[in-house]
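Archive entry. Fields below.
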Amino acid sequence: MTNSAPTKPAKAENALELTDLSVAYRVAGRNRAVLRNLSLNIRQGEAYGLVGESGCGKSTVALTVVRYLPRNGSILGGVISLDGQDVMKLDAEALRRARAESVSMVYQDPGKALNPSIRIGRQLTEIFELGGVTGQAATDRAIAMLNRVRISDPPSVMQRYPHQLSGGMQQRVAIAMALANDPSMLILDEPTTGLDATVEAEVLDLIAQLRQELSASILFISHNLAVVSNMCDRVGVLYAGMLVEEGPTDVVFNDPRHPYTVALLRCLPRGGQRKDQGRLDTIPGFLPGIGADIKGCAFADRCALADNRCRTELPPLYDLSDERGKRLSRCFHHDKAQALPRATPSDVATAPKPTTAPVLRVAGLNKTYASHGHPLRAVKDVSLDLRPGETLGLVGESGSGKTTFARLLLGLVPPDDGGTIELEGKALAPKLENRGDDQVKAMQIVFQNPDSALNRSHSIRHILSRALKRLAGLSGKAQEARLDDLVRAVRLTDRHLAVKPRQLSGGLKQRVAIARAFAGDPRIVVCDEPTSALDVSVQAAILNLLADLQSKEDVSYIFISHDLGVVRYLSDKIAVLYLGRIMEIGPSEEVFSGPHHPYTEALLSAVPQLDQTETARIRLDGEIPSATNPPPGCVFNTRCPRKIGPICEQQEPPLAEAQPGHSIRCHIPYPELARLQKAVVTEPA
Amino acid sequence: MSAVQTTSPTQDDTRRRSPMADVFFSLMRSRTFLVGLVIVLFWVACALFGEHFAPYDPLADDIINALAPPSSEHWFGTDQIGRDVFSRVIVGSRDILTVAPLATLLATIAGTALGLLTGYFRGIVDDVVSRILEAFMAIPVVIVALLAIVALGTSKATVIIVIGLSFAPIIARTVRSAVLAERELDYVAAAQLRHESAFHTMFVEILPNVIPPILVETTVRLGYAIFAVATLSFMGFGIQPPSPDWGLSISSNYGMIGGGFWWTVLFDALAIASLVIGVNLVADGVHGALND
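PREDICTED_STRUCTURE:
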C-alpha cells in the first residue's frame, strides 16, 4: 500500500499500521531479508488473517509488532504504528507498558506459554498485580477472566497446574491471560494448530464470541486457510516476506487474483473431492530461501503464468477494489490469475476394482495397557477387513486408539490374547519377531514424523538400499536398478541419494519414508498422519503420490489422519474410533454424507471449511473421557448431543449394520438418525 | 519463527552443511577447545619426540650434581641421584599418555557395548546388568587396583584394565540413557519392521546417533584417567621405576620437600595438572560444540 493507497486513513482508525516494514535475520554474518517492504493496516475491531506457507514470514510479523525479534533479527526500515503510537520510537519503559497494556499475544503451543511450575491462579493474578490490583480484587478479576473464556468452575481450575489441564483448556487460559488487560490488539499465532478438530472448533467459537464482546482488533496468523476464512474479515497472503494479495476474506478465497493464492486453494481437497475423481493440484518448486535475492516477482519461479517481465520487474500492488471491498494483488497478470494452468494433471486412469478376497481380516482385536494398576483399554474389540487396493481411513480425536491399532497390526505392540489378524488368509503371530519375513515385508508403515522415522546418521542411499536388501532381498546390480526405479517412483532424483535426511525438506523426507515403505512391494501400508507436518502444497504432492502408487501397485492403505478432508480424498472406507471402539464403519461416502453416528456428525461439524455456509454447528462439551475409566453404557454418552435417555448410560449399543457394509454403534435406529440429521446436515448426499 | 536462523523446511536440499562440518567449525571458533588442544598436543609431542629435545638423558644419574636447584644448566634442577628434572618431565609424559588413553578407550568400548545392551533390551537385562554396574561403581578404584595387582601383577596392562573397567560403568550409564531416548524414535521401529537383528539395530542404527554423548563422556573420562594413572603410579601400583613417569617421580621425591628441594616435585605436579586441565578444556569445547 506504499504506492497505491489512495487516501491515508486517519491514525485513530487503525489499531495496527505497518508501513514499508523490512526485517532481516543475521545468519552467518549476512543480513537475510525476511520481510520485504510490508505494509498493512488493521482497523479498530477488525480481524485480519495472515496466511502463507511456513517460512514466508508470518510469525516474524507478529514478533516485530511487539518488537520481540530474536537477537539476530533487526528491523531495517519502516514504521510500526500501534493505535497511533510509533512502536519504533518507544523507549524500554514505554515499550514494556505497551506490551502490558495494549497488545497481547497467544502462541501456538499453550503448554509452552504457561509456566509449568506455577498454579494457573497465580499466573493469572500476577497480570493484574502488575497493573496495581492486588489481593482479593486480583483473584476476583482472574475468576471473571476464566468465566469469560467459558471455563466452568474457575476456582478449581485456578488451583491446578498447567499440565493438569487439557490442550484446549490450556489455550483458553492463555487466551484469558492475553485478554486480562483488555488489549486493543490481540495477536493469535496459529492458536489452534496443535489441537484436535473438536477442541479447535471450541477455541475458534470462543474467539468468535469474544470478538462480539470485546473491542480488540485481531491479527490472526494461520497456515489453515479454512480457519482464517471462518474467523477473519480481511485476509493478507504473505509470500517470501511480501504481501502478494489482500482483501475481504470471502472475496479473496472465492475470487483470488494472485496465482499463489489460486494455487494454494487448489492444493486442498475440497467439497468431498476423492482420489478417483482426479489428482490435487500442486505448487512446483520451493519458497525462496530466507534472504534470497529476488529481482522480479517472488513467485515467478513457481508460476506457470510468469513471463520475462515477471522475472525482472517487481510487480506493484495493483488496486483492484470494487463494490465488494478494497483489494490488492501483486501480480502483472491479476486479471487472468485464475487461468493458472494446473501443475499436476488432474486426470487419473481408474479401472473398476474387481471384488476380491480381503487382504487383511481383523477380528476381535483388543489391547489393554496397565496404567497405575488400572487396566487401560486402548483398543476394544475391533473387527474389520480390508480389500486389495482399498484405503481404510481411521479417524477420531487423539486418544481414540488410532495409532495403537496400527501398531497392533504391524506387530510393534502385541495385542491381548483372543483376537486374530489374518493376512491373505493366514493368521499373523501377535509379535513381530514371530512373523515370517514375507509377512513382515507385506505390511509397512509411513510414520507421521520423518525426522524420527529416518535414521539421521544414514544417507538416503543407505536407508533405501538397506530396505531393498532386507525387504526385497536384492543386492548388487539388481538392487541398484530397483533403487533407481523406487527413487523415480516417489519423484526424487539421484542427487538426493547422497545426502543425509536433515539436508532435505519435510516433503522430500516424507517421500524417502514412502519409498522405504514400498521397497518390498508391500500389500498394506499404514500411513500414520503422513502429511500433518507438511505445508498444503507439499501435502497435495504427497497425497497424489500415495494415490498414484496405490493405483499402480494395488496396495491397500490404512490411513490415519485428523484432517477429514484428507481422509475423505484418499479413503474408500472409514472407521470412526472413540475410546478404542469402532463407533461407525462404512464406505467413505456414506460415512461422510450420513446418516452417521452422532460422534461422526460432531467430528464433521467441527471441521472448519472454506466453502462453509453458516450451519448449525454441533459442539462436543468437555474432553474425551479417560480410557482407564470409560463411561458405562455407550462410551460416548457423556458428550453425545443426541443422547436419548437412560439406555445410553446403561447398555453399550452393538455395532449394528445399518446398510450393507455400513455399521453404526448407536441406540438410535438408523431411520431415526436419518430423520434427525436431515434437518442439520447440509452436506450434499 | 525462531527457527529461521537455522533451517526453513521449504528450502531445497544441500544448502545446509553436514553435522560434522558444523561441529568442526564450532570447535575452531571455541577458544576453550583451542587452548586445551594446544596444551594436549604439546604433551603428545613430548611423549613422541621428547628424548630428541630433552637436554639430558632422563635416566642418567650424576651423583655429584644431585639435588641441584634450578639453574641455567638444569632448568628445573636435579633430583636426589642427579637426574635432570626438566628432561624427566619432558619424557615423563610418555607412559601416562599411553596408559590413560588406552584405559579410556577400553572403558569407552566396554561402556558403549553395555550401554547399548541395557538401553536396547531394557527389562530384565537392564535390571540385572545395571545393578551389577552400580555395585561395581561403588568400589573405589584403589581397591580394585589392589585386587588386580594381586591377581595380575604390576604392569601397564594391569593399570589399563583396572582403570578401563572402573570407568566402563560410568560410560555405560551415559550411553544407556542416550539409547533409551533413541530407542523411542520411529527408525528403530522401522528397523524392526525389516526384521533386522538386535545386533544390527544396536550397532548400525542406534550407535551412530549416540556418538556425540559418547565423545563428550570419553574426553571427560580421559581427564579422570590421567589423574587415576598418576595416582596409581604415586602409590606404587602402576608404572614402575626407572620410568621418569610424573606420578612415580613425585612419589619417590616428595620426602625431599621438607628439605627445601621443592623442584623435585613441583614441576611433575604442574605437568600432571596442565595435562588434566588441557584435556578438560578439550572436553568442554567438544561438549559445547555438540550441544550448540
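CURATOR_NOTE: The longest helix of chain A spans residues 536-553.
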